[in-house]
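One example given next:
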Amino acid sequence: MRTKRAYLLISIFVAASLLLAACGGEVATPTSVPAAATSTSAPAAATDTTAPAAATDTTAPAAATSTSAPSTGGVPAGKIAILLPETKTARYETQDLPNFKAELQAKGFDLNNLIYSNANQDASAQQQQAEAAITNGAKVLVLDPVDSAAAAAIADAAKAKGVPVVSYDRLITGSDAVAYYLSFDNAQVGKLQGESLLQALSGKTNPNIVMINGSPTDNNAKLFKAGAHSVLDGKVTIAKEYDTPDWSPDQAQNEMQQALTALGNKVDGVYAANDGTAGGAIAAMKSAGLSPLPPVTGQDAEVAGIQRILAGEQYMTVYKAIKSEAMAAADLALVLLGGQTPPASMVNGKVNNGKIDVPSVLLVPVAVTKSNINDTVIKDGFWKASDICTSDFAAACTAAGIK
């Protein structure tokens, strides 16, 4: 009797087990969502100090990592600071800053986390602004230095706090703490200016020119100057040459007045390093009664510079696609904010800053004369025809085919 009861219990247990298996098996356990990366490793300082040949190595160094968790939408959280050098050159407030902000916003970055300062050509003020930005939580500095050498202290201090520095437009020299450099081929800018001036002077024998260079504290000005000399030397007589503190148009006007006095108003051409200094030089020559004006170079494709070209007062300017430059800087800042390494396609060269070969993003400058305004600054949307063709320049725009 007990044996039959035992068999009966075993049979019931087996049947129950088979029934449970047939109804669905094991219950799935939930998987854990991985936490956001929180690597706090600081980047290794760049140690390759070999001057580059033609830049072929596009491998970027390890980027500084961020301890901020990413915000919604994949945009990294944290603050970015952009520090610009001055307002005498119109581009910074009218092009660089607006386009930088627009690109950040288009990528989903909260502009409340953007720190912006302009140093108004004061290197000490810029250092204080950088210190304040880091104190206020900036995780990336995009720095366009007032003084290329003095800004080394800013880069070094930022690196000590684990904050990567992007040297924007102007190269920070003498520091191994510069993570990236983003600008144009600035020696090529000077070459374009020099070549254009020679073209305008073709047919003249032993022409005399005046050179109005940029600020002696701006490394880019040195490159523009070197590029121009590489083209002009031996082909013209450089009767007077000046370096212009702070890129001041007023100082450029004073320099040109001095040159005219010394040369008895006999000037065949003027190398002016940018549109602001070109405007100062032209004002001096108009005041001295020179007519027609000799050809004058420029740079930055400012509205005033383009208008002078249309009016026949300035021969050329150099268009640098500042919108592309500012957008690339914003993209690079976001990559660094997220603790990532920029893709090889973004970095296309290296530039030695006296301390290291800085991984660089180098854009291509373009010479602009009256003949190609439509195909450059208008076509690219850098300026609209309505920006340039105000009432005073409407007839000149019509003659040049700008609508």
